[in-house]
Amino acid sequence: MSKSETRRFTLKDIFDRFRKDSNSCEGGDCHCGPDQNPSHKPEKQDGFEQVFNAPQNRRSSLKKLTASLLAGAGAVSACNPVKDDKAKEKSQISWEEQFKGNYKLMTEEEKKATVNRLVRSYELRTGKALNMSSKGPEKDVLFGYAFNISKCKGYMDCINACVEENNQDRDSQMQYIRIHEMEDGNGLNFGKSKDNYYHEVPAQGHFYMGTQCFHCEDAPCVKVCPTQATWQEKDGIVVVDYDWCVGCRYCMAACPYDGRRFNWSEPNVPEEELNKNQHYLGNRMRKKGVVEKCTFCIQRSREGANPACVEACPTGARIFGNLLDPNSTIRWVLENKKVFRLKEDLGTEPKFWYFMD
Amino acid sequence: MKILVVFWNLVKDSIDATTHGTRLYHLWMAILTITMLIGMYCYSIQIEHGLSVTGMNDRVSWGLYISNFTFLVGVAAAAVMLVMPTYILKDIDFKRAVLIGEGLAVAALIMCLAFVIVDMGGPGVLWHMLPVVGVFNFPNSMLTWDVIVLNGYLFINITVPMYILFRHYQGKEAKPNVYIPGALLSVFWAVGIHLVTAFLYQGLQARPFWNNALLGPRFLASAFAAGPALIILVLAIIRKTTAFNIEDKTIKKLSMVVTVAAQINLIMLVSELFKEFYAPTHHSESAYYLFFGLDGKEALLPWIHTSIFMNVVSTIMLTFHKLRNNFYVLYTACILLFIAIWIEKGFGLIVPGFIPGPYGKIMEYQPTGIEIGVTLGIWAMGAFIFTILAKTAILIETGKLRFIKKEEKAINEVEA
């Protein structure tokens, strides 16, 4: 199967997938009649198969059923002479997207296939190209974040950069980061702080403290998810499979740090503002009814760059890096500054530290 | 083969029975149907525009739907209070009430599942949550436990009465060794569904208002008060409108169950209030918000005050024999108690769990018209299902619906 962007799903592709032996569909000369053998075995596992197939032996009958269902529906959409090629391809893509498996459990091949489908789907809709990565975690990398309370002045450049970088819904003004304006002398009193203010900053007698997803080592949100649509990657980033999330919002109830956001309606990002440099688990466009969150800008951090908030911060209050690299700045901060974490008594082990100069 | 024929006849007969009735019955069913249609229309708007049409937001992410779900799990669990004495202790008083109780449990469970489904952001991919076909996060997520216990309980509550009615429909006695194991299992299962639903909230360290060891037991106490209270009311209506004879003794015994449960529930409430207010920590802020309001935000105050008032009054009414044994007082107390616990287990539990938020932010919640429409629609659906089940069960139990009679009728017709 060609991996170029102009890749198209043809009838042959569909049947190749469910071909039992190489003879049945040779040369693209397919029969889309009812004579298709429902016992066609998939050549390679894709999402639907991956889900139905997990323990191999016991469900062979179910597997056959789904394979024939898929082949049947594929045949119907692909054989319809009224539809043009693009419409056929669109319906083929949406069918395969609807029944794909959980990204966490996909093989590398399947990950590439779903990314290709999404890129192609965008191209079909808008005629424009998109760059989407499915890059996995690097070896010996564990991301950590530190926040300097003395330096933050509440400019909120981090929030704006984050919204632009991560394609967050403009209509509901979704923001992953909140900046809390604290009164001097009250200690860390979130109850008395404001996270929504419209005045000149820094305000006299106040200090500022940012919160976002803390990528906990023992994350309550991951534990409660009924479908494993959210999990922690090897490099410590807690991610969401937007296509696998059923929108029950149990993770939002479980998060002690207000780290999760829900798409209450269809997210909207104007075409000209869309960040087309995307990662499957990061800033790709979300649907309505799914949960999303900060991913330490996975599309940037996995390429070795800093998250957008770190880059945008004008005061240098934000420090990000690899906790396993002894020469990283984050390690220097953790070893030489007096650091603390929020709500440590909950035992969630956030990978986000605060410190002061 | 014969079983299929009998079953087919049962289905036909019950459709026939449920589509015929008095004018009042037709009016009742028409109102329910219209309410269901309104609910469906509201839900179609929600499907179109997403959950943004509800009053929920990122800060209060569960609202009216999950509140009703929580309450109805309790109503469903309450059937056990009838099942145990009838099937296991062979208490003849309850024999007739138990079918009604189980029908109520089935209706309540279907409503529970409906409330969960309407609360989902992506109902189209709900198969992700099913065991075997989806990816089930078992045993980590309490929600997966809830899926298992709710559906299992629904299965038990459909099969046990179904078997009994099916036998009676054929004019045979039900064999105890067939249904007793199911009934016995349902006793433990009923406690399970409510405890697991409580653990759903109790297990969240992020929400101190829920993260409280009394939550589970208190769920049970309130469930065993509200559920049988509803059953008493339903039995009262059935007694009045049908030929189904329910003895005073049955209702009096049930009222005993309600009374004890309501008293225990009140004791636990006092214990909770003492813990929150005698030596308040910042973990008591949600309770403060609920009972007294916080920072001038007091949307829940009228609700919870009404609830506590009704709770106390109805418990007092139930406690004194003289009052309780007067059926009009009893019914009033049951209505008060039912509403009180609906508020307490719904609004009074789910919403304040989110207020104040993790960083002390107070965002109030107000359900929208669409949310209320969907909720009413689901309640109407539950009442509709219950009416159908109860009508068929009553006709079979009173001997008006019999398979044999049909055959005889056919023979008689041929002879004539």
From TrEMBL, chain A:
GO MF, one example: 4 iron, 4 sulfur cluster binding
Q: What single Pfam family name could you report for this chain, choosing any that match?
A: Fer4_11
Instruction: Report domain 4Fe-4S ferredoxin-type positions.
Output: 236-265
Do you know which SUPFAM superfamilies this protein is assigned to?
Answer: 4Fe-4S ferredoxins
Supply the InterPro entries for this chain: 4Fe4S_Fe-S-bd, 4Fe4S_Fe_S_CS, ET_IronSulfur_Cluster-Binding
Keyword terms:
4Fe-4S, Iron, Iron-sulfur, Metal-binding
List the signal peptide residues.
Answer: none
The family database entries (PANTHER family) matched by this protein are listed as: PROTEIN NRFC (PTHR43177), PROTEIN NRFC HOMOLOG (PTHR43177:SF3)
Protein name as it appears in the record: Molybdopterin-containing oxidoreductase family iron-sulfur binding subunit
Q: Which organism is it from?
A: Aureibacter tunicatorum
TrEMBL record, chain B:
Keyword annotations for this protein? Answer: Cell membrane, Membrane, Transmembrane, Transmembrane helix
> Does the record's keyword annotation contain tRNA-binding?
no
Q: Which family does it belong to?
A: Belongs to the NrfD family.
What is the protein's given name? Molybdopterin-containing oxidoreductase family membrane subunit
Lineage of this protein's species? Bacteria, Pseudomonadati, Bacteroidota, Cytophagia, Cytophagales
Q: Name one Pfam family in it.
A: NrfD
Keyword Heme belongs to the record? no
Which GO cellular component terms are attached? Answer: plasma membrane
| TM ranges | 24-46, 66-87, 99-122, 142-166, 178-199, 219-238, 250-270, 300-320, 327-355, 375-396
Report the subcellular localization.
Answer: Cell membrane
Q: Where does the signal peptide begin and end? A: none
Query: Chief location of this protein?
Result: membrane
Entry-linked InterPro entries = DsrP-like, NrfD-like
Membrane topology, from the record: Multi-pass membrane protein
